């Protein structure tokens, strides 16, 4: 089972898995965190019943850390493995891998949109000087 904490120690393998170097991964992580939090807020608003536990309550999932979630979806788009293999590599079944892919894809797209708007804002401010 691949975890971020393990993979970040091997920079060549990390880049093969994600298509990003570690610095670029860490640069994308705050935007991904913001997009993930927005998704959680949206899901909470759409709930029809009250939560039994606070966010994060219950048992740990196969992707407990935000870094693992980002690694999971970047690996999927870099390699495009079948979901059975994706699940095996990340320690889950094919069904759960498919659910995570469908849940994290729009979050990654939103995070990349945040990054794009930040880059655009940096370009605009640098042109003023």
Structural shape: globular
Uncertain regions spanning at least 5 consecutive residues: 120-129
Rg calc: 16 Å
Would you tell me the overall average pLDDT?
A: 88
Structural account:
The protein has helices at residues 4-7, 11-18, 22-46, 66-79, 83-89, 94-127. The protein is mostly helical and 129 residues long.
Short description:
With 129 residues, the chain is mostly helical.
Give the key terms.
129 residues, mainly alpha, 6 helices
Secondary-structure blueprint:
Layout lengths: L3 H4 L3 H8 L3 H25 L19 H14 L3 H7 L4 H34 L2
Helix pairs in contact: 3-6, 4-6, 5-6
